[in-house]
C-alpha cells in the first residue's frame, strides 16, 4: 500500500456558537487541508493521478468552502466538525479511482493547530 497526499488551502470566515472566548466572534482563517489516499499501483504506476485528486477535492470541498461563511453551512464550525463533513464529501473516492480509498484528512485552522480524521472507525 502506498499513501498519496495532496495539500489545499481555502479562506473562510466562522464563529463558534458553543464557545466562550476569542473564537465566538466572527473572524477568518486560511485553512490548510491535507488529503491522503491509500492504494496500490495501477497500470500507470500511480495510486491516483495528482491532477485527478485535485479536481475531485476542488469540486467536492474547496469550491463549497472557499470564501464562504462557514456558519451558513454548519451550526458550529469547529475544525472537528468541518473535517468530518469533508470526509463525508470525499469518502466515495473509489467512484472516480478504482482501488483508491480515503485514508486520512488533516485540517489546519492556524499554522500550529490542526485536527486529524480517519473516518468513524477512529473514534471506536
Ligand atoms: Zn476560528
- Count of alpha/pi helices: 2
Q: Encode the helix/strand succession as letters.
A: EEHEHEE
Name the hetero compounds present.
Answer: zinc ion
Question: Which residues form runs of ≥5 with pLDDT under 50?
Answer: none
Cα Rg: 15 Å
* Content of β-strand: 25-35%
- The tally of strands reads 5
Mean pLDDT: 94
Strand sequence of the main sheet, in spatial order? 3-1-2-4-5
Q: What does the largest sheet look like?
A: 5 strands, mixed
| Proportion in helices | 10-25%
Cα(first) to Cα(last) distance is: 23 Å
Which term fits the overall shape? elongated
* Protein structure class: alpha+beta
Short description:
Strands 3-1-2-4-5 form a five-stranded mixed sheet. The chain has two helices and five strands. It has helices at 50-65, 79-90, and strands at 2-14, 27-39, 68-69, 101-110, 113-117.
Amino acid at each position: 500500500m502506498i499513501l498519496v497526499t495532496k495539500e489545499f488551502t481555502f479562506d473562510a470566515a466562522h464563529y463558534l456558537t458553543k464557545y466562550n472566548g476569542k473564537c465566538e466572534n466572527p473572524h477568518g482563517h486560511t485553512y490548510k487541508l491535507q488529503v491522503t489516499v491509500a492504494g496500490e499501483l495501477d497500470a500507470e504506476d500511480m495510486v491516483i493521478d495528482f491532477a485527478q485528486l485535485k479536481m475531485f477535492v476542488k469540486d467536492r470541498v474547496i469550491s463549497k468552502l472557499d470564501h464562504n461563511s462557514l456558519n451558513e453551512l454548519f451550526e458550529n464550525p469547529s475544525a472537528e466538525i468541518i473535517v468530518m463533513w469533508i470526509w463525508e464529501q470525499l469518502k466515495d473516492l473509489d467512484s472516480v479511482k478504482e482501488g483508491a480509498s480515503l485514508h486520512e484528512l488533516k485540517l489546519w485552522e492556524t499554522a500550529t493547530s490542526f485536527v486529524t480524521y480517519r473516518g468513524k472507525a477512529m473514534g471506536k
